[in-house]
Design a protein that fits this description.
Layout: H1 11-14, E1 24-25, E2 34-35, H2 39-45, H3 51-83, H4 91-101, H5 115-119, H6 125-150, H7 154-160, H8 167-177
Antiparallel strand pairs: 1-2
Helix pairs in contact: 2-6, 3-4, 3-6, 3-8, 4-6
Length: about 180
């Protein structure tokens, strides 16, 4: 199911089967738990990701991006989305433009990487698999930030039934059923 993407599962998934005793980075009230490891370090230290897992992550990313575009259309409308440059730019790029315009920090897949990692372009398979997981998590965090810009009141989140839900569940609900009403 679209809402059961591997990157959407709890911190055990990110760390694979063996949870690390690493400190975690989370935003208050977020469903995300990120180990403080860059994808490069995670590739070296954590359990290996199988090709099948990576294929599932690729499918989740494609589904998420498709839902993101639908979400942007529902919340911003075709005219505003076109003003941002869509469809000449992707839904993800349009999301990042909105975040920049609102002064919101954009989360990147390599935010936890050191400058050395960012310069090293060695694309070992496990490293690329880990970057895909990081890309999906960053996209989820950016989408959550966008939803909080559109609906900043936590009471409204509660009334919409969004509190504690995964971002993919929220955007799937909006894309499939439209915006909830109060």
């Amino acid at each position: 199911s679209k809402t059961d993407c591997p990157a959407n599962q709890d911190s055990l998934e990110i760390n694979q089967v063996i949870p690390l005793a690493e400190p975690e980075v989370t935003s208050p009230g977020s469903v995300f738990h990120l180990p403080v490891l860059c994808p490069c370090e995670a590739a070296r230290r954590l359990a290996r990701i199988t090709s099948e897992e990576n294929a599932a992550d690729e499918e989740c990313l494609a589904d998420f991006i498709a839902n993101l575009t639908g979400l942007l259309t529902k919340l911003l409308g075709d005219r505003r989305l076109a003003q941002l440059g869509y469809p000449a730019i992707s839904g993800q790029e349009a999301l990042e433009k909105v975040l920049r315009l609102t002064g919101t920090t954009i989360t990147r897949e390599d935010d936890l990487c050191t400058e050395t990692c960012k310069v090293e372009k060695e694309q070992e398979v496990q490293r690329s698999f880990r970057f895909l997981k990081s890309r999906l998590i960053a996209l989820e965090m950016n989408t959550e930030a966008f939803l909080k810009i559109c609906t900043p009141d936590q009471e409204i989140w509660e009334k919409f039934g969004w509190r504690g839900k995964k971002v993919i569940e929220i955007i799937t609900q909006i894309v499939e059923n439209g915006l909830p009403t109060l």
